[in-house]
Write a structure and sequence with these properties.
This protein has 435 residues and is an alpha/beta fold. The protein is built from 15 helices and 15 strands. 32% of the residues lie in helices and 19% in strands. The N and C termini lie far apart (55 Å). The structure holds pyridoxal-5'-phosphate and iron/sulfur cluster.
Length: 435
């Protein structure tokens, strides 16, 4: 029998390893969990976390809140409220005040990416890059467990007007029929793999007969957080059968696996899930951000990519932590990310060099930090768009002054004395105000 236990701040004392968590850390968990989402399950606590090494263990840090995730004054404020058992409403209000200052909606997702038909706003759809459309199914706006560094935290924080979600598949079908340039439809969340197979079919089946849709992508952390979704869950076989049906309809099915650490794919459960998914003809690709305290080490990435290749997973993106939420705790400088990427990439054979990164998903597009170099005596970052809000920007190379501590595009200045980056004028027109 498959056992599922989910732990939150409220029932954490039921966790069999509760005794291993020092008293002070328990308070930290409770405090931070009153602001950011926290949820973990028995698969993770039994198979992924090394309890002899907490709190330093990277998988512990990936799931369990740390005090530095809040600025010291915010932490002190929440800590007092939690310690004095303030009324829930007061705690919620304080948390909301803090959250609204954490840039909940980075890169203009809400204003710039959400399309309209006539004057109707299509909530739960994002269409930023010409070739691909994101869809956020309402039932998928939760996860099997929450990653502490998640940039999608407003989806889970009760900030309803900041949340993307839709359950109207007709809306999506109509939109895709009107936009034949959109080749890929990307299901995201949350985690679409929290849905039952019946719900997943409801969303995907109607897309299989749209000839302009070439690929279905599903972004998921289930291989790491709950591999039983593909093996032991009641409707797992039906799910894999549906994957086969998607593939035989002539579409490419891509499972975009969120994988932060090699340990996540080393368990027998993950191994079985991976091989079952691959046997349907679906392709698994991996992407995740490089973050401090979890995977800010070239050896981790080398081991992870190597392991992925052996299991038949294609390394796809290394991202940079977005400028939202607890970025001050998890983010790392661009220069450090380039060095981690390069050192790991060096050790891969050509099969592993399919990966791109480190990449910033920012308002103008996806920008790769290709490297650090010197041109006419000036030390610069070489940057390249792999996706642009204007499709013309794709593959364009540009340069920024080197800055050791810069960790996001907003921290950078154009190289060679240029006044602004080439895309700024157009971005201003798009925003219609100074950016
Ligand atoms: C990353 C992303 C995509 C997909 O980009 P690919 O480079 O094709 O993987 C699509 N839409 C948005 C908004 C994205 O951030
Ligand atoms: S699985 Fe993805 S969406 Fe869910 S908490 Fe982790 S990073 Fe966020």
């Amino acid at each position: 029998m498959l056992q599922y236990h989910s732990y939150t701040a409220e029932n954490l004392h039921n966790l069999p390893q509760y005794g291993e968590i020092p008293e002070e850390q328990r308070h930290v968990i409770k405090t931070i969990a009153s602001v950011y989402p926290f949820r973990v399950n028995n698969y993770i606590t039994e198979n992924l976390i090394d309890w002899s090494n907490i709190p330093a263990d990277p998988l512990f840090r990936l799931c369990f809140p740390q005090d530095e995730m809040l600025e010291p004054e915010d932490f002190a404020r929440m800590s007092d409220l939690v310690r004095t058992e303030a009324p829930t409403e007061i705690i919620r209000q304080a948390a909301k005040e803090i959250l609204l200052l954490q840039n909940p909606n980075p890169a203009g997702q809400m204003e710039l990416n959400t399309p309209r038909i006539d004057d109707e706003v299509l909530h739960g759809i994002q269409h930023k890059y010409r070739e691909s459309v994101l869809f956020f199914p309402s039932e998928a706006q939760i996860c099997h467990a929450y990653c502490t560094y998640c940039f999608r935290w407003p989806q889970f924080s009760g900030l309803e007007n900041l949340k993307f979600a839709n359950n109207d598949i007709t809306l999506l079908v109509n939109y895709l029929n009107d936009h034949p340039e959109a080749k890929d439809i990307i299901f995201t969340g949350g985690d679409p793999m929290v849905m039952s197979t019946r719900q997943i079919k409801k969303y995907i089946q109607p897309l299989l007969t749209i000839p302009t849709v070439k690929a279905i992508r599903i972004g998921t952390k289930a291989l790491s957080w709950w591999p039983y979704r593909f093996t032991a869950e009641r409707d797992a076989d039906e799910l894999l059968g549906f994957f086969e049906q998607i593939v035989s309809s002539g579409k490419h099915l891509a499972i975009m696996a969120h994988n932060s650490h090699p340990r996540e794919i080393e368990t027998p459960e993950a191994g079985e899930a991976i091989s079952r998914i691959r046997s349907t003809g679906a392709v698994i690709r991996s992407q995740s951000p490089v973050v401090q305290h979890v995977n800010d080490d070239a050896e981790i990435w080398e081991n992870m990519w190597q392991k992925q290749l052996q299991l038949g997973i294609i390394p796809y993106y290394m991202f940079l932590e977005r400028d939202t939420g607890p970025k001050q705790y998890f983010g790392i400088p661009l220069a450090q990310a380039v060095s981690i990427f390069t050192d790991a990439y060096h050790k891969m054979s050509g099969l592993g060099r399919t990966v791109r990164g480190p990449s910033m998903s920012c308002s103008p597009g996806k920008i790769i930090v290709e490297g650090i170099t010197e041109i006419n005596g000036e030390k610069v970052f070489a940057l390249k768009f792999t996706q642009g809000r204007n499709p013309e920007w794709t593959n364009k190379i540009f340069f920024a002054e080197f800055d050791e501590s810069a960790s996001w595009i907003d921290d950078l200045n154009p190289a060679f004395g240029h006044e602004e980056f080439f895309f700024k004028r157009e971005m201003r027109e798009i925003y219609n105000y100074c950016w």
